[in-house]
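An example makes the point: we print one protein in full, the chain in one-letter code, the fold tokenised, without further comment:
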Amino acid sequence: MSKGGKILLIDEWGSRLRVRKGMLVLFVRENNRFVKKIEISPVELDSIIFWIRGSSVSTAAIIEAARYCIDLVIFDNGRPVARIVPAKYGSIYRIWTRQLIIYHRKEKRLKIARAFVYGKIDNQISNLRYFSRLVMHNRNLYYMLRRRMDDMYSMLQKLNDCKSVDEVRNVEAAAARIYWKALKELVPRNLGFKRRLKRYDVVPGMSIDPVNKALNIGYGILRKEVWRAIFMAGLNPYIGFLHKPRPGRLSLIFDLMEEFRPLIDRIIISCSRKTPGKLKPLTDNEKEAEGVANVFRIVYEEFQRRNIVQMISVQARRLLNYVLREEPYTYFRLV
């Protein structure tokens, strides 16, 4: 369990969050009894994150979080699965209706889907350029990254020729294969990162390297912030344009995440090269909480340095303007 900046990360089994005299108090179990670990005023907090099962929160604490607009989010297996939602949310009928209209109009849906993927690929190219400058002393690695950049530029050209959202998704997947094949060469061999593992690649009992674990945590953090920005903009998170709709799937959240994913990639790959020791605890059951806290700290420090939470909100508003007024959507650009 750690507290960094305005984020309270609860990652100890048996933790209890309560309210006492207007203060949020976190209790943890020690020697078969509960002891006070942290006491903090609600006005100081931006987010409360429950990372593991086996912790609890009182109704009074939930009410305080809602009253002070604290983003209370519950994670499961590294992914945000539930959060406090304001009672008034859901009354923005006009926005949701416009989302449905755009979803059912092929050209309008294709336009915004292409913009999301164009932003993602462009930012992936930015990452390859960024890392190529760092490895100029290694000519083989440098020229490999430059070749992959050329391959990715060709993906942007193919994207412009797409006639359907399915074609856009195919280009995105092809670009991802090129991108991750290049990035894996940047990670120290002793971290065991061989390829980017997707959820369906992981089977029960499978050992996952610390880089993949850190990427998953980083994407979970990103998903939390994008989810909040979508809510604040009044958009319906279930009506997306790029990702296929499924019951209960937050398709629009995944849409808006795409252009920001390369930022998480840069943060984690850079960490693996500069301070790999911060990721290694993720593969040790006894020290995993330390590794999780390290990744949270690293990601949010970079978010703060780049003002990313505000930038995500800006992108959500740009998306809202596209939905309501069909204003051109400009993607977030990673430099």
Q: What stands out?
A: Confidence is low (pLDDT under 50) at residues 1-5. DSSP finds ten helices and nine strands in the chain. The two ends are 33 Å apart (CA to CA).
